[in-house]
Every structure is written in structure tokens, then in C-alpha cells.
Amino acid sequence: MDKAYHSFSDLFKQLGLHSDPQSIESFLKEHRPINASIAVFESAIWTSDQSQFLKEQLGKDADWSEVIDQLGLALQAKIM
To answer: 10-38 b/e with 16+ CB inside 10 Å = b?
Structure first.
């Protein structure tokens, strides 16, 4: 069985955030860089529900895991 593909837009919708490209870019610019030594779900930028969702999905290696990992990397990136 193939895993479903989820985009950043899908993930932002799932997290209850604005999901258009400009809002996603603004969110990333506002919150990066996050500490690379902690898991993405441990960052203080999330509500408890958002953090719980991210943690559960990563823990289950669910369909969302790949895009959550990508989000973590995007948030760790230093602004040049």
C-alpha cells in the first residue's frame, strides 16, 4: 500500500494554520530558526494540540511523517 502524499499546505491546514503559500512562507520566516537539538514538536511555536499531533504522527511513522520532517528542516534553516 502506498502512503498518501501530504504537502506543506495540507499539513498547515491540519494544524489549523493558514495554508496559502504566502502564509506558509511568513510562518517559516517568523519562527525560524528553531533549535535543531530538539524535536520539531517540542518547539514552543506550537499549541499543545498541534504539538501532540506532530508527536503522534512522527511516533507512528504515519503518512504525515515525511512532510513533518520537511517542516522541521525548513524551520531549522538559518535565515541568510
So the answer is: ebbebbeeebeeeebeebbeeeeebeeee
Which residue range(s) make up the domain with 57? 8-76
User: For the domain that residue 71 is a member of, what is the CATH number?
Assistant: 1.10.10.1130
Single pTM value for the model: 0.88
Cell numbers for 25, please give them: 512562507
Distance CA 15, CA 55 (A): 12
Q: Domain tally for the chain?
A: 1
15-72 residue pLDDT tens: 999 999 999 999 999 999 999 899 999 999 999 999 999 999 999 988 999 999 999 9
In a domain, residue 3? The reply is: no
Helix H segments across 1-80?
Answer: 8-14, 21-31, 48-59, 65-76
